[in-house]
Known about the structure:
- It is a single chain.
- This protein is α/β, with parallel strands linked by helices.
- Helix content is 40%, strand content 26%.
- The protein contains three helices and seven strands; from the N terminus they run E-H-H-E-E-E-E-H-E-E.
- Helix 1 (6-35) runs antiparallel to helix 2.
Amino acid sequence: MEYMSQEGFDKLVAELKELENVELPAVRDAIAEARDKGDLSENFEYHAAKREQSRLLGRIRFMQKVLENARVIDKSKLGGDSVGLLSKVEMTNLANNARMTYTIVSPHEANLREGKISIKSPIAQALLNKKAGDTVEVRVPAGLMKLRIESIEL
């Protein structure tokens, strides 16, 4: 079971509809057009379109499975005193006093540019169930990182 925000769920549904209603028919048209050109054994367009169709079908099946097992979290029922899924955490890196803010989300919603990190990431795992003012140590690829939690919001 995958827990996610309503926003993340809606994005996945929209992407799935786009794949099923726009991209897949376009690839099927490309396959039909390439097939009409004759000899399929040396037809690059045909083989490229078939590969793209296979990739799209795999992505569609994956997304259908994710949505089938998804559970949307009601933010009003979450506690805001400790770090959990959908918590927005402001923290300070104690090594260089750099402040950063991340929202902890499901792996399918993670996007570093938007400040969203996966709950399965090392930083999120270290922060889980901690409270504002707590200091945590996180083992990251660059070494050991010490973080102090400044605030937690929902």
